[in-house]
Design goal:
The complex is a heterodimer. Chain A has a two-stranded antiparallel ribbon. The radius of gyration of chain A is 20 Å and the shape is elongated. By secondary structure, chain A is mainly α. In chain A, α3 runs antiparallel to α5 (about 100-135) and α3 packs parallel to α6. Helix content of chain A is about 70%, strand content about 5%. In chain A, β1 and β2 (about 40-45) form a beta hairpin. By secondary structure, chain B is mostly helical. Chain B is globular and about 75 Å long. The relative contact order of chain B is 0.13. The mean pLDDT of chain B is about 85. The chains are: A mainly alpha, B mainly alpha. At the A-B interface, α3 and α7 of A face α2 and α6 of B.
């Protein structure tokens, strides 16, 4: 019941986010198959299989970059609002009076937010696939499928970090601040350890965001992905420990 | 009276930020000072050879220190501006004090502008602390180049005031500091990233050119007598934007029921 209440409470926010994500996917995908001709955009004429591959590669690259930025922001927002906005926190008192354990509520709130991220990822990706299919009359979704799992993992990690911070601090805003601080510190350390900072929209993997997950130097294939997934599951558990002991 | 309340409610955070800002500034100053001594040893070696250009270790140390500060100062202004803007009006909503506040015998305009002014002064103090920390250490090297820090401070204060005003306005609009913060972050993300994306995807260079023009408030381009050039038009634009936000917040609060 609480699961559906979480969905219901955030329905308008989700609709707006979904509209933004789909619009970004359309804006990012369309130019891959269009050409500028005498000041107007026209559909590119397909002359070779290599051109089809190039259109798919460009379209998928643009879409993933746009979705990565948008979804990380959305995930942080949904994560800190896992227990509602600060002025509406009195709802929590009512929630605690229900015959449900606190651990059940923590995991339900976390899971509700996580499932809300799924349509935000899947629908724009399907839009991208549909547009590229219509433009090229071919279906080459391998890159997209291969990178969807790391993309969702990063988004889920951001969401869980924000949810954890908001639960521990008992405040959406403070959770947002702390999650942002962790991201900035992580970025700073990463920046200090790297040779430079890339700001290149042509690059398929924004700032090398996917490199670590696709690296051939792993303990076993997908080890890094599973490691982050483990951390994602650990954080709600720690949030549960904090929430169960709190005097509300 | 309300100015005192604003200060009282936010002083813990402001003191923490100011102390952290000062510590970072002093650290940058210490790094630049260490670099100065390295430059001095180079200068000694260089002096043994025929000189090819004028070597000024003090100026190099100042450049080094200000380069370090420049990279951090704007991010600090961004952070402080957003957070202080979100906790200003948002604090009253969160504590449930807003309906009570609006029953006081003072106009809503006074509340908005007092709140905004106190927050702006706090942000100025925090940003100045970082630069002050670096400059105070570098003054041990030479006091001739203090004015080199002027354009950085001006840029960060102006853009910080805009970000603070944006966050203040979105918080007043949404009636929640969390939602205000989130909306401000979205606006900044769009402003920073979307022009580059449009240029790359659709070959629309106008938004990117405008963004680059608007964010270039000064440049290290020595003139006849000046070591840098200030760009007046983008500064004027941001000044107007910074002043427009509290005005919009005022309209929002005056039109709202409570």
């Amino acid at each position: 019941m609480y699961f559906w209440a979480s969905w219901f409470d955030r329905r308008y926010r989700l609709i707006v986010y979904l509209a933004v994500a789909v619009a970004l996917a359309v804006l990012a995908t369309l130019p891959a198959g269009l050409e500028r001709h005498e000041g107007r955009w026209i559909m590119a004429r397909i002359t070779s299989p290599a051109q089809v591959i190039s259109i798919w590669h460009t379209g998928i690259g643009h879409t993933l970059v746009a979705l990565l930025v948008a979804l990380l922001f959305i995930a942080a927002d949904l994560g800190v609002l896992g227990w509602g906005d600060d002025p509406e926190r009195t709802n929590l008192d009512f929630l605690m009076s229900r015959p449900r354990s606190r651990s059940h509520l923590v995991w339900t709130a976390w899971l509700a937010g996580l499932t809300q991220l799924l349509p935000l990822l899947v629908l724009p990706l399907l839009t991208c696939l549909g547009i590229l299919r219509a433009m090229t009359h071919a279906l080459l979704p391998e890159d997209l499928l291969q990178l969807s799992a790391p993309l969702f993992t990063m988004v889920a990690a951001m969401y869980t970090l924000a949810f954890f911070m908001a639960t521990v601090t008992a405040s959406a805003r403070q959770g947002y601040e702390l999650a942002a601080l962790v991201v900035i510190l992580y970025w700073g350390v990463h920046f200090a350890g790297s040779r430079g900072f890339y700001y290149d929209w042509d690059r398929l993997y924004l700032f090398g965001a996917f490199d670590w997950y696709l690296s051939p130097h792993q303990i076993f294939p997908l080890a890094n992905l599973l490691f982050v997934a483990g951390v994602i599951l650990l954080l709600p558990y720690l949030a549960q420990l904090s929430f169960v002991r709190r005097d509300l | 009276m309300y100015a005192w309340k604003c200060w009282h409610d936010s002083r813990d955070r402001v003191i923490l930020y100011a102390a952290a800002s000062l510590a970072i500034g002093l650290m940058f100053g210490a790094i630049a000072l260490a670099q100065y001594h390295i430059f001095l040893s180079y200068a000694w070696e260089w002096s043994l050879r025929p000189r090819r250009w004028y070597w000024n270790p003090a100026l190099l140390a100042w450049d080094w220190g200000l380069y370090l500060t420049e990279a951090t100062l704007f991010r600090a202004a961004l952070w402080v501006g957003l957070i202080l803007g979100a906790v200003s009006v948002g604090r009253e909503y969160r504590s449930g004090a807003m309906p009570f506040l609006l029953t006081r015998p003072a106009s809503r305009k006074v509340f908005v502008w007092t709140d905004w002014s106190v927050g702006l002064a706090q942000m100025t103090a925090i940003v100045a602390m970082m630069l002050g920390g670096t400059v105070s250490v570098l003054c041990a090297v030479s006091t001739d180049y203090v004015w080199l820090s002027f354009p950085q401070l001006l840029e960060c204060l102006l853009l910080g005031a805009v970000l603070y005003g944006l966050s203040h306005f979105t918080t007043a609009l949404m009636g929640s500091s969390m939602k205000g913060l989130s909306a401000s972050a979205a606006v900044i993300l769009f402003y920073e990233l979307l022009p580059g994306a449009f240029e790359d995807w659709w070959h629309l260079s106008g938004p990117l050119r405008f963004r680059d023009w608007s964010l270039k408030l000064w440049e290290d381009k020595p003139g006849v007598n000046d070591p840098f050039t200030l760009h007046g038009w983008p500064m004027l634009m941001w000044l107007l934007v910074a002043l427009a936000f509290p005005l919009l917040s005022q309209f929002i609060l005056e039109w709202r029921e409570a």
